[in-house]
Design goal:
380 residues; alpha+beta; Rossmann fold; OB fold (Dihydrolipoamide Acetyltransferase, E2P); 2 domains; six-stranded mixed sheet; 8 helices; binds adenosine-5'-diphosphate; binds magnesium ion
């Protein structure tokens, strides 16, 4: 097993003219499971390929197990990769696919058998060992690809969107299987995905990456435990990326600044109290209010103080256990969403009032940086 340390890591092309990754600093502990998330093209795969040695490091330091690894040949890094495309050998059985790398490395037969048997048991592939890949489902093939990596006994696993080729139902099932596997296999792992739900459910910590903006110092946005990112996103990018449906955003202006409480005004003229420290801002500053669809209160709840936003219901998504009400207001720029449990009494076109508890508000400055929350969030 190994810890992974990235210090000021950069990746550029064209002799440093175009950067994909800049100033990536990250310390992954031995045995940790970390997810890299971010939109397509932000450099997740590139970063993973730099760690396993398939891509050069433009500048900065990569350490594996406490040792400089920038120039270490890939086969000496003892890193196991699992890709989106399983790339199994079609003419070989499951067993032969899993044995192949070990045979190349001239591992003795008894040891090969032991490792394959152990991995097959862990991945529930024991009954499938003599089958060819074409006789397997997508999920089974992905398990073989993982098995082929496990038998190498790497000190670090790298997964690059391993589930994105699978249909939704299978993806949910494989996610469970990966979570179970994770509990048994204590190997340090990095898991790349653009799916924030996968990252939230599997990872000890999440690293949020964004496409590198012109002039930006780095494209590493935030690192933290899943619920830390959910409850305390450090900027608008992370706030809008983590959580589903997305956090609602409202353009607003500060009316009264304060250390523990502030007053803001929405485009529609509504004034709201929020529990964010705006002592370093000024009245009149443009800000963005963020509130999650899950964090609003029902219109008949008395709990929201005087904080209400009223809109007209455009559509209702009824999912059975919960519903999402999509609302519009003529003077509010964007549509907003509220999650409610019981939507039977609601209909499109009618007015709907949602409570916005001051403690549940996120507030961002004009550059997208968060104003610290001064209270813990409150739930219905
Ligand atoms: N040889 C190259 N020259 C210039 N840019 C490249 C090259 N290879 C990849 N890129 C750029 O690197 C970015 C990151 O790609 P990638 O790591 O695959 O993103 P992700 O895995 O997050 O979707 C992309 O925007 C891509 O255009
Ligand atoms: Mg990728």
């Amino acid at each position: 097993m190994a810890e992974v340390k990235l210090t000021d890591l950069d990746k550029s092309y064209d002799n440093g003219k175009s950067f994909v990754l800049k100033n990536i600093n990250l310390h992954i502990e031995d045995g940790e499971f970390v997810a890299f998330v971010g939109p397509s093209g932000c450099g997740k795969s590139t970063l993973l390929r730099m760690i396993c040695g398939l891509e050069d490091i433009s500048s900065g330091l990569l350490e594996l197990g406490g040792e400089r690894a920038n120039e270490m040949p890939p086969n000496e890094r003892r890193v196991g990769m699992v890709f989106q495309s399983y790339a199994l050998y079609p003419h070989m059985s499951v067993r032969e696919n899993m044995e192949f790398g070990l045979k190349l490395a001239k591992v003795n037969k008894a040891e090969i058998n032991r490792r394959v048997a152990e991995a097959a048991k862990m991945l529930q592939l024991e009954k499938l060992l003599e089958r060819r890949p074409k006789a397997l489902s997508g999920g089974q093939r992905q398990r073989v690809a993982i098995g082929r990596s496990i038998v190498q006994e790497p000190r670090l696993f790298l997964f690059d969107e391993p589930l994105s080729n699978l249909d939704v139902a299978l993806r949910v099932q494989m996610r469970q299987e990966l979570a179970r596997l994770r509990a048994r296999l204590k190997t340090t792992s990095i898991y790349v995905t653009h799916d924030q739900v996968e990252a939230m459910t599997l990872a000890d910590r999440i690293v949020v990456l964004s496409p590198l903006a012109d002039g930006a110092q780095t494209n590493l946005e935030q690192v933290g435990a899943p619920l830390e990112l959910y409850h305390n996103p450090c900027n608008l990018f992370v706030a809008s990326f983590i959580g589903s449906p997305k956090m609602n955003f409202f353009r607003a202006t500060i009316v009264v600044c304060g250390q523990s409480e502030s007053k803001i005004k929405l485009e529609c003229g509504t004034e709201l109290t929020v529990c964010n420290d705006t002592s370093n801002a000024s009245a009149g500053d443009k800000v963005t209010l963020g509130i999650r669809p899950q964090d609003v209160l029902k219109q008949d709840s008395n709990d929201a103080g005087k904080n209400w936003i009223t809109g007209t219901i455009e559509t209702i998504e009824r999912l059975g256990n919960e519903s999402f009400v999509y609302m519009k207001h003529p003077d509010i720029h964007e549509a907003f969403i509220a999650r409610i449990e019981d939507s039977t009494r609601r209909e499109c076109g009618s007015e709907f009032r949602v409570g916005v508890p001051a403690e549940n508000c996120h507030l961002f400055d004009a550059d997208g940086r968060v104003f610290k929350r001064t209270q813990s969030p409150k739930f219905d």
